């Protein structure tokens, strides 16, 4: 089959809708998808019928409302289409009601107190803007998930609300520029996904990978990523076969998988799709992660999505490329050709700059997790400080606006900066600053702080909302001016001057930047525990409430959930560490010591004065480490219990301050022991095996 035959073959997409729905119903559905019009419920039955018939032809026997609870993964409960008939047979049915709304006894999903477990009902509601698809014999219907009272319990609902908010405000701005025709402004997202592939056999030897997704122990292999021979290197046959199957599976589901390559760390890879509407990109990224995990075992591999599977080599992130686009495809962050287009571009750019500066804290929160804490600021990913990279050219243009000076492009003078017009300038596609958390890359921003496991919904929800707020303030001001052009110029100038501090083009990994950022008054929230309280700062609550993205109780519940997830993640790690030390490392090292001791005794029987220096020293060192392991594991267990007795913020802080450091101490003891223990005694796979034996 050719790619065009494969692509979207498992998706109830527009082509299928057009073919299978009555013309009027198809038109109505299309309006909903493209213009955000609410759907006339009466057509649901027709759509459900068409979907069912199509899905059954694809071999489906079940349907599910596919949703995204606050777990970073998706959830599905499968119901078969069967309905019994009087004669003891069954027929296949699927009604409009079942399509539109599902009732889900979902008491075990995190709700942060929004839904008591005794009031366990949650509702899923069809999101017609994301196409249904067939996966493993089940018709999957993308849905939003909310409580009985309509409070969002998922990541999709706030995202859709934030897209609406941005649409409302962006259209006000476009109107001021004389654009009355744009029906809808959407946000676009292209999430680049990093991951590791390790051999299944070695994976299965490790409880830490199994339970925590990352190695809690492991001495570095003699070789790491220092030769830079893996980045963009030729693909190994097994990896290549994996990627081929992955692409095909994703294409079937309509995911625009485009670019694949080896990444910086050994065994690390990346997949980038072609960007699409944000809510679809979010769904597709979830599918991508799921299919990666599913396809890997077909090749004897396991896919690791954790932010930091291995110490000492790069961890995995997700680059969230983001822009604004009209329904006719005009990218609002694309610098235009004419002064008017440029003025509009500069205004949107100013809005993003203002938003990111004013809501740095929420940007930081949107990517915070226990896993991502290992990457940020570790000179492999952007620091925990949010800043914006614009590139020298754009920066110079903004400075010339602020300083009222003329901007000269080197060589060609193509700028004409009057008071009333903005300069025309060629777009800069040359961004290669990999150290910036939020970089302008010619016609979009690339938010580079995201962790690899997380759903991209949260960061996009935040971005959309805070930019909507900036645009709202701009529109409020500009709607009441007489000389629009001058007003725009003044507004851009004022905004840029005020928010210059957030712009930084230098090396974000350097120590100097940390100091300079502090002088500039930028936030440096180095851990999730430091970052999360930003969520409940009044200013941050206000902006989400104002734009109807979250109500206050939704925000507070999310704050609780994030704290809880952080604590749970570290608790599992601590328990796993103690378990591995007691049941695997201590017995293994002890056995090795005993063999060495026997050898010493045997040697001494032959020549009583023989020194046995090597064995004796190793026995001594290992015995000391063995005692350390035992002692630290006891303290770790106690610290973990103490932390568990606390709740909320204090619990998370105890995990960070009292549990994590002991886990590190324990690791140091185990890793030191690994370097002097015979291979055949080491109870689990090594970094060398995991990273280099694919
Ligand atoms: P790089 O590795 O240099 O960042 P890639 O080609 O790997 O570049 O990734 C760029 C990503 O940005 C792709 O997913 C691409 O589809 C996406 N992208 C391009 N234009 C836009 C846009 N207007 N909005 C959102 N994402 C975009
Ligand atoms: Mg990128």
Q: What descriptive keywords fit this protein?
A:
694 residues, alpha+beta, 9-stranded mixed sheet, 6-stranded mixed sheet, binds adenosine-5'-diphosphate, binds magnesium ion
What does this structure look like?
The protein is of the alpha+beta class. The protein has 22 helices and 17 strands. The protein has helices spanning 3-6, 14-20, 23-35, 44-57, 96-100, 156-176, 200-203, 207-212, 237-252, 278-295, 339-358, 360-365, 392-403, 457-478, 484-499, 511-520, 528-531, 538-546, 552-606, 613-644, 648-675, 687-692, and strands at 62-66, 78-80, 82-84, 90-92, 101-105, 121-126, 133-135, 138-147, 185-199, 257-262, 268-273, 276-277, 301-304, 317-326, 388-389, 438-440, 445-451. The strands form three sheets. Strands 9, 10, 11, 12, 13, 14, 15, 16 and 17 form a nine-stranded mixed β-sheet that branches. α13 (392-403) links the parallel β15 (388-389) and β16. The longest helix is centred in the last third of the chain and has 55 residues, at 552-606. The two termini are 29 Å apart. Residues 411-421 have low confidence and may be disordered. Bound molecules: adenosine-5'-diphosphate and magnesium ion. Residues 188-190, 192, 259, 272-275, 319, 321-323, 331, 443-444, 446 line the site of adenosine-5'-diphosphate.
């Amino acid at each position: 089959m050719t790619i065009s035959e494969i692509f979207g073959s498992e998706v109830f997409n527009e082509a299928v809708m057009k073919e299978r729905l009555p013309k009027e119903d198809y038109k109505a559905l299309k309006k909903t998808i493209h213009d955000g019009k609410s759907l006339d419920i009466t057509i649901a039955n027709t759509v459900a019928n068409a979907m069912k018939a199509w899905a059954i032809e694809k071999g489906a026997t079940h349907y599910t409302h596919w949703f995204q609870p606050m777990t970073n993964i998706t959830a599905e409960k499968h119901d078969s289409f069967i309905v019994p008939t009087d004669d003891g047979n069954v027929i296949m049915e699927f009604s409009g009601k079942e399509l539109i709304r599902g009732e889900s006894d979902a008491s075990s999903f995190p709700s942060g107190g929004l839904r008591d477990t005794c009031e366990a009902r949650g509702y899923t509601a069809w999101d017609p803007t994301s196409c249904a698809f067939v996966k493993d014999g089940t018709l999957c219907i993308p849905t939003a998930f909310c409580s009985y009272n309509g409070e969002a319990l998922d990541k999709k609902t706030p995202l859709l609300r934030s897209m609406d908010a941005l649409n409302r405000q962006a259209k006000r701005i476009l109107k001021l520029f004389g654009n009355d025709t744009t029906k809808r402004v959407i946000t676009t997202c292209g999430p680049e996904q990093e991951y590791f592939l390790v051999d299944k056999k070695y994976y299965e030897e490790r409880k830490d990978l199994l339970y925590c997704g990352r190695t809690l122990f492991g001495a570095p292999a003699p070789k790491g990523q220092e030769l830079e021979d893996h980045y963009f290197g030729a693909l190994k046959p097994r990896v290549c076969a994996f990627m081929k199957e992955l692409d095909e599976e994703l294409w079937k589901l309509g995911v625009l998988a485009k670019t694949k390559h080896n990444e910086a760390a050994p065994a690390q890879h990346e997949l980038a799709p072609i960007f699409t509407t944000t809510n679809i990109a979010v769904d597709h990224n979830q599918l991508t992660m799921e299919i990666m995990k599913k396809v890997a075992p077909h090749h004897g591999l396991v896919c690791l999505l954790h932010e930091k599977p291995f110490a000492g080599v790069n961890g995995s992130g997700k680059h969230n490329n983001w822009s604004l686009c009209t329904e006719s495809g005009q990218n609002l962050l694309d610098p235009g050709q004419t002064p008017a287009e440029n003025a509009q571009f500069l205004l949107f750019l100013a809005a993003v700059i203002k938003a990111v500066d004013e809501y740095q804290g929420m940007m930081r929160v949107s990517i915070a997790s226990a896993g991502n804490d290992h990457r940020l600021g570790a000179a492999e990913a952007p620091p925990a400080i949010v800043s914006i990279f614009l590139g020298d050219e754009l920066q110079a243009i903004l400075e010339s606006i602020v300083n009222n000076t003329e901007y000269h492009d080197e060589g060609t003078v193509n700028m004409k900066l009057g008071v009333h017009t903005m300069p025309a300038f060629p777009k800069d596609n040359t961004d290669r600053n990999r150290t910036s958390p939020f970089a302008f890359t010619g016609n979009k921003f690339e938010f580079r702080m995201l962790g690899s496991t997380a759903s991209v919904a949260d960061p996009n929800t935040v971005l959309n909302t805070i930019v909507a707020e900036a645009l709202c303030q701009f529109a409020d001001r500009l709607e009441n001016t007489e000389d629009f052009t001058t007003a725009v110029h003044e507004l851009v100038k004022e905004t840029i001057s005020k928010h210059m501090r957030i712009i930084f083009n230098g090396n974000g990994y350097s120590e100097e930047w940390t100091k300079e950022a502090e002088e500039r008054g930028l936030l440096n929230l180095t851990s999730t525990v430091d970052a999360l309280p930003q969520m409940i700062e009044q200013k941050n609550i206000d902006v989400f409430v104002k734009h109807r993205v979250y109500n206050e109780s939704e925000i507070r519940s999310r704050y609780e959930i994030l704290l809880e997830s952080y604590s749970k993640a570290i608790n599992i790690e601590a328990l796993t560490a103690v378990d591995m030390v007691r049941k695997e490392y201590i017995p293994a090292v002890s056995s090795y010591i005993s063999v060495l001791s026997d050898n010493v005794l045997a040697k001494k029987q032959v020549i009583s004065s023989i020194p046995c220096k090597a064995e004796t020293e190793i026995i001594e060192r290992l015995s000391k480490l063995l005692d350390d392991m035992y002692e630290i594991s006891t303290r770790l267990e106690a610290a973990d219990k103490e932390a568990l007795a606390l709740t909320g913020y204090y619990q998370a802080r105890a995990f960070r301050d009292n549990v994590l450091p002991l886990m590190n101490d324990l690791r140091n003891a185990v890793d030191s022991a690994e370097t002097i223990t015979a291979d055949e005694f080491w109870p689990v796979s090594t970094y060398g095996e995991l990273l280099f034996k694919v």
